[in-house]
């Protein structure tokens, strides 16, 4: 599914608002998340996956010898990509969204794992 720029902006605005609202409740953020992600991304992850403990991107799980389960839904986070200069000459950071998966969304790769999954990990 491809989203328009307006849909993406609306989705990000919704996540930011939800993260801000969640932040006002002073949630307990697992230390594993807090060490790896910004406060805003931690709140966005917890809003989407309240029981998240260890999260990583698809390829990071693959490098760790785990495969994301088919059909698993990731949590969207904002990743800084750099700085752009706008029409007024002001530098503004720009972001992209990426998806991270909780460890509960993964399974360990074993000898019984599909051949392709094992090959991807060893690549």
Number of helices: 5
Helical proportion, percent range: 25-40%
Structural class: alpha+beta
Average of the residue pLDDT scores: 83
Radius of gyration: 17 Å
Strand arrangement in the largest pleated sheet: 1-4-3
Number of domains: 1
End-to-end separation in angstroms reads 28 Å
**Element string (H = helix, E = strand):** HHHEHEEEEH
Shape: globular
Low-confidence stretches: none
Number of E strands: 5
* Largest beta-sheet details: 3 strands, antiparallel
β-sheet strand percentage: 25-35%
Task: Tell me what the structure shows.
- With 123 residues, this protein is an alpha+beta fold.
- It has one domain (5-122).
- Helices cover 40% and strands 26% of the residues.
- It has five helices and five strands.
- The strands form two sheets. Strands 1-4-3 form a three-stranded antiparallel beta sheet. A two-stranded antiparallel sheet has the order 2-5.
- Strand 3 and strand 4 form a beta hairpin.
- Helix 1 (5-23) crosses helix 3.
- The longest helix is centred in the first third of the chain and has 19 residues, at 5-23.
- It is globular.
- The two termini are 28 Å apart.
- The mean pLDDT is 83.
């Amino acid at each position: 599914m491809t989203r328009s720029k307006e849909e993406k902006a609306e989705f990000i605005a919704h996540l930011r608002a939800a993260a801000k609202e969640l932040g006002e409740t002073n949630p307990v953020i697992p230390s594993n998340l807090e060490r790896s992600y910004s406060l805003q991304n931690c709140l966005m992850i917890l809003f989407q996956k309240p029981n998240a403990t260890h999260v990583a991107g698809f390829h990071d799980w693959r490098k760790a010898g785990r495969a994301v389960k088919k059909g698993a839904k990731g949590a969207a986070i904002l990743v800084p990509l750099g700085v752009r200069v706008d029409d007024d000459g002001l530098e503004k950071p720009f972001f992209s969204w990426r998806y991270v998966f909780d460890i509960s969304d993964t399974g360990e790769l074993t000898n019984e794992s599909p051949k392709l999954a094992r090959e991807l990990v060893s690549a």
